[in-house]
Amino acid sequence: MKTYRLHRCDRNHKQHDAFMRCAYPKAAISGEGQFAVISRCTRPHVITLYTNPAAAQEDVDALVCDGLCVFDHEVVHLDLNHQQNWKHTHV
Q1: Digit-coded pLDDT (tens) for 1-19
Q2: Of the candidates 14, 44, 45, 11, which has an alpha carbon nearest to the alpha carbon of residue 32?
Q3: Does the residue 52 lie in any domain?
Q4: Cα dihedral: 49, 86, 14, 1 (round 10)
Q5: What's the predicted TM-score (pTM) here?
Q6: What whole-number distance in Å separates Cα of residue 64 and Cα of residue 6?
Q7: Is residue 42 part of a domain?
Q8: Which residues fall within 8 angstroms of residue 15, CB to CB, at 6 or more apart?
Q9: Contact 34, 78 (CB under 8 A)
Q10: Which residues form the domain of 39?
């Protein structure tokens, strides 16, 4: 499972949904928790947050995005303790 630490601003986000809104500003985001199911099959991307990695994996395994689904889904862990602005990593 990937761990996400990079986002677009210099703030230290305290909430997982705020972190994901910064990382994916156009995405439709729901739920709460440190595990995210990211579906990139449609625009905007759809992100659902979970507190339990098993529930997130179960959702991604069952996910089908209507007739547009190309199975571009993944579960990621959101690490708020080691956040970075993505611009500072490309210096």
Answers
A1: 999 988 888 889 999 999 9
A2: 14
A3: yes
A4: 40
A5: 0.85
A6: 27
A7: yes
A8: 32
A9: yes
A10: 27-76
Judge contact between 49 and 59, C-beta under 8 A. no
Rg (CA), the chain: 13
Q: pLDDT tens digits for 30-88?
A: 999 999 999 988 889 999 999 999 999 998 888 777 777 888 899 999 999 998 887 65
- Identity at 69, one-letter amino acid code: C
CB atoms closer than 10 angstroms to residue 78: 21
How many CB atoms lie under 10 A from the CB of residue 7?
23
Query: Smallest Cα–Cα separation from 6: which of 76, 61, 65, 62?
Result: 76
- Give the total number of structural domains in the chain: 1
